[in-house]
Write a structure and sequence with these properties.
Blueprint: H1 11-32, H2 48-54, H3 62-88, H4 94-119, E1 137-142, E2 151-156, E3 162-169, E4 181-188, E5 191-196
Parallel strand pairs: 3-5
Antiparallel strand pairs: 1-2, 1-4, 2-3, 4-5
Helix pairs in contact: 1-3, 3-4
Length: about 200
């Protein structure tokens, strides 16, 4: 039975199956190593209706979508060749069968991808921009922050992740000592400027 997959008529589907298994192994290894970020999300200036038709309109990871497509292509291709063999006594030319399998497999994959998108958890990201540090409070960890002499500070973002930045006082006369907190008000490159919480203007904030 498996010998037919080594024939030219079934070769495209055998190759698709091998690629599908390879992607699955990569995903499994990635999860075993601590969830490597191997799934890319699709952001394209394409009409949303086209993306929905393809099954990509619900932020489904591209590797999951591709694995589903390869599986649908393989199944429909084998079904076409088996059907042709039953009707005519032999399989179709691999090119003709591949074209039919791609069309039918794409339609089937639309249903499969939309189904997967419903059961998979929505994509979430904790990646933030450094500009998001503005209007947040940081704690000086080491040294004393003076104008012209920055100190290392820690900021905790809305996701609970800690970030470490270099901070100087916004005002020339201010000094922010170790352990004190300050409100980050502006950024210049990698350097941030802050108003110490001791500042009277911040007492009501």
């Amino acid at each position: 039975m498996f010998a037919i997959f080594l024939t030219p008529a079934y070769a495209p589907f055998a190759i698709a199956f091998v690629i599908m298994v390879g992607i699955g192994l990569i995903e499994a290894i990635g999860l075993g190593l601590g969830h490597l970020d191997l799934d890319a999300d699709v952001y394209a200036e394409t009409d949303s209706g086209v993306l929905d038709w393809l099954g990509l309109g619900h932020e489904l990871p591209i590797l999951i979508w591709l694995t589903s497509l390869l599986g649908c292509f393989t199944l429909t291709g084998i079904a076409i060749q088996q059907g042709a063999t039953a009707l005519t006594g032999g399989p179709l030319h691999w090119g003709l069968a591949s074209g039919g399998a791609l069309a039918a497999g794409s339609l089937l994959n639309t249903l499969a991808a939309n189904g997967l998108a419903r059961i998979m958890p929505g994509f979430e990201t904790s990646v933030i921009s450094t500009d998001d540090f503005l209007r947040r409070r940081g704690t000086i960890l080491e040294g004393t922050a003076r104008r012209g002499s920055p100190a290392r500070a820690k900021i905790v973002d809305q996701h609970g992740q800690a970030h470490f930045i270099m901070v100087e006082p916004h005002d020339d006369a201010d000094v922010i000592a170790t352990g004190e907190t300050a409100l980050i008000v502006r950024r210049d490159g990698k350097l941030f400027y802050a108003l110490p919480d001791a500042n009277a203007l911040l007492q009501s904030i």
